[in-house]
Amino acid sequence: MQPIVDTHAHICDPVFDEDRSEVLERAGDEGVIAIIAVGENLSDAQKSLDLAETHPGLRPAAGLYPTILDGAQAEEMHGFIRAMRARLVAIGEVGLDFWIVKEAFEKEQQKEIFKSFINLSREINLPLNVHSRSAGRHAVALLLECNAAKVQMHAFDGKASAALPALEAGYFFSIPPSVVRSRQKQKLVKTIPLSQILVESDSPVLGPDPNRRNEPANASAAIRAIAELKNISEQEVLEAAWNNTHKLYGNI
């Protein structure tokens, strides 16, 4: 069987500190051979680099969670990303979150920080791993405005129609295991061409069961759901997700 790349997981989360090796072993048993370890702050970014030294399946990313409205932290993260460019596979996660950020002036702050990461992505040629909770249209519009080229829209929660401009721009959309219980995600899968689908776990959240900790192994559940929704074989989904991941991230 074609192997799986989990393109978005918070494997540095403390919830995995007690059994991370076992979690990664279970992922391997399900065919997950690589995991993009996204981060929310500088501590996460350093932790993912350190973990990658002892867990060769991890692919470090570095980003600032959208609810951190701190220009100084953003600048510090820019410096870290530039310094560690050779060891990182993505800038992420970064983006917009209008679920938590409600005030107009804070939304503008958030947009400016996101824009700075989009520009950094273009400058150093690293893909963006994008968060857009309750802000799908706004995130897509800003990406297009800034001519973002290499983009993964992670766990997109907008209407399928809001994804269309991003699809036209060649952006990729990653599907989490929660697709098995989310009508919105199911509609999204039916809209997105197979040529632009990736899979993710978003561990430790967005699993098949909302009451249980999610793990990278569950990326395989997303594969099965996509195959069923598109009425194609799991092998076709596996091959497409593998090829798409390499188009965006190179030889990961």
Computed CA radius of gyration, to the nearest angstrom: 17 Å
Q: What structural class should be given to the helix and strand makeup?
A: alpha/beta
Number of helices: 9
Tally of DSSP β-strands: 8
Task: Describe, in plain words, how this protein is organized in 3D.
- The chain is an alpha/beta fold and 252 residues long.
- The chain has helices at 20-29, 42-54, 71-83, 104-124, 136-145, 160-168, 183-191, 219-230, 234-249; strands spanning 4-9, 32-37, 58-62, 90-97, 128-133, 151-154, 172-175, 197-199.
- It has an eight-stranded parallel sheet with strand order 1-2-3-4-5-6-7-8, sandwiched between helices.
- Helix 7 links the parallel strand 7 (172-175) and strand 8 (197-199).
- The model has no long low-confidence stretch (mean pLDDT 97).
Q: How are the SSEs placed, and which strands pair?
A:
Blueprint (H helix, E strand, L loop, with lengths): L3 E6 L10 H10 L2 E6 L4 H13 L3 E5 L8 H13 L6 E8 L6 H21 L3 E6 L2 H10 L5 E4 L5 H9 L3 E4 L7 H9 L5 E3 L19 H12 L3 H16 L3
Parallel strand pairs: 1-2, 2-3, 3-4, 4-5, 5-6, 6-7, 7-8
Helix pairs in contact: 3-4, 5-6, 6-7, 8-9
Quickly describe the structure.
By secondary structure, the protein is an alpha/beta fold.
Brief descriptors of the model:
8 strands, alpha/beta, 252 residues, globular, 9 helices, 8-stranded parallel beta sheet
